[in-house]
Amino acid sequence: VTRITLLTDFGTRDGYVAAMKGVIAGIAADALVEDAGHDLPAGDVTAAAHALAAYWLLYPAGAIHVVVVDPGVGTARRALAVRAAGRFLVGPDNGCLSPALATDPAAEVVAIESQLYLRSSVSATFHGRDVFAPAAAHLARGVVLGELGPAVADPSRLEGRQPRPTARGLIGEVVHIDRFGNLITNIPGGALAPGHFIQIAGHGPIPVVRTYGDVATGELVALVGSSGFVEIAVASGDAAARLAAERGCAVVLAG
Amino acid sequence: VTRITLLTDFGTRDGYVAAMKGVIAGIAADALVEDAGHDLPAGDVTAAAHALAAYWLLYPAGAIHVVVVDPGVGTARRALAVRAAGRFLVGPDNGCLSPALATDPAAEVVAIESQLYLRSSVSATFHGRDVFAPAAAHLARGVVLGELGPAVADPSRLEGRQPRPTARGLIGEVVHIDRFGNLITNIPGGALAPGHFIQIAGHGPIPVVRTYGDVATGELVALVGSSGFVEIAVASGDAAARLAAERGCAVVLAG
Amino acid sequence: VTRITLLTDFGTRDGYVAAMKGVIAGIAADALVEDAGHDLPAGDVTAAAHALAAYWLLYPAGAIHVVVVDPGVGTARRALAVRAAGRFLVGPDNGCLSPALATDPAAEVVAIESQLYLRSSVSATFHGRDVFAPAAAHLARGVVLGELGPAVADPSRLEGRQPRPTARGLIGEVVHIDRFGNLITNIPGGALAPGHFIQIAGHGPIPVVRTYGDVATGELVALVGSSGFVEIAVASGDAAARLAAERGCAVVLAG
After folding, report:
1. What is this model's ipTM?
2. How confident is the model at residue B212 (pLDDT cuts 50, 70, 90)?
3. Nearest Cα residue in chain C from A231
4. The model scores a pTM over 0.90
């Protein structure tokens, strides 16, 4: 069985997600479609890339990951299909596939252009249905990546900033706010040492703990999250709301 | 493999959707269940029909589409099973299956009444679990449509209004507002000609473009959407919020 | 085919749910993963148990139900795997699996501890990915429950209160508020008799009807809901909002 995952900002109150699933079913009758999520903030390519990073490589080789967060749909932006670390990825050329491109420097990237693998009529506003779903389904049927279109040498990549050492400590930033209000930073967990603490937006020192339940409900803590980076959380609470924090807020690791 | 899609207004914070999936699994062990969406506005039959229209025919023949937006559950309203264009549809007789009935004038329609294909005890408030899920699962197992119950000659249909020509131009209306805040109208894309523009609620002339990305972020535009009808959008924004528009708002195509 | 259901409070705008699905796909290539729901209120174990109760036993024997609402992740709370009534359940030892434990007094319960069936590195904050998903996938592959770890004699159970008879009538409480705003109580439907009515929070007598559509839109009614308990609803409306009711509110059945 080949699994195809779908990550979009389509929500689940219109028929857009099911339209993609219907197209896939019509081409690759045996493929298993799994929802990665459809509630990404509208047009938020950075959030899409962050979500994708959490799962694409956990799927076994052969899995096909479709990402459609596509504010540039219908413009000259290319439609990409990628083979990275044995997995396939399909989505617009706007940086949403960055995690796979960054992980596998030998990733093959093509622009989806062959008429054979598109819907017969391609709309200007719904490439999820007309371009990405059919491309993914054809890959599931065994079509070779290079058949979809010409190689692309310069796919878009989101440039993640690295934390920088300063006299005050290591200065990073919030790169994602998750559903629980946890603030995920770009500071690698390996940078933490005993005695270190975290500061953000005038708050701190925030103590570093191992897990949420190590402190009383409502306390502000820092810990190494599931992706290996430092995150700021409130035990049984919402750190983003508490701190009125946004993506891009500076975070300092000191000690 | 037979695919069964589920479209409901049940949300995904109760166990209602999974109850339907469990019933299906118990009857049709090999069926693949795919979520079409569960976040329809509560009781909004019109929104259900609009969502269904986007995908039911994209699935291959043999697919089974279940729609449960059912404010009349437990009353005298019938439970329907339909065969249209080779696909099956199951849902309450309240108009939610209108897209299939409109597309295939030769659609077969029956009322689900045979005790053989219902749960042994049918509640008054959850026909998704007790009537529609088992009917869909039995269809997936190969039960013939007519076995489910007697033919129905007069299934409910939502009466979509047609746009009408006037001295000011073609007057249509907003028939759906999607997750992005795009206003989908009942004006067919084919009615557009060069030089035409759109007016709504005192706004306009709104220019017609090919896709969202053809204008700067924040601009109000009209375009032919993915279902072939004119829609009004804000590039990287929310037209419904900007215009305080609702379903039923008049839209004028002039030029 | 073995079905694995997932019920979490992860939402669907991060990659957390898909991370679990990827781990499962890597271990049990043929398992079918079905979403039960991911929009539970964050950390709400009671809501998780209530949702689980609606579907776990509707799935056929052999199904595997994963529940991850886990405010104590990474602390000393155990990770459980359960075999009850022929179904399997996997989740934290915080009461979320109570419905299965209550239904089958002979349920087998083990603590998931064997390194063989965990991810090679277990994070302190994401046992959905590192403990529960792999355990479920190994069960789907046929691993015997007892292989996962030692037997547990005292799994956590949520103590549901029973309604109590008083001079005013039978006094129960609201145990769940669903997506429609219906107030589900702990008063069994069998306690209702002709002439009975319901009171809550100074409202009442609220008449008992058979289904929502038996009264005009906007009327407050009581009825026996799909789980067999009395619930309070507003026809085509939201009873929780109307009554400003919360879980735990007292409800009186009198007559």
Report:
1. 0.97
2. confident
3. C125
4. yes
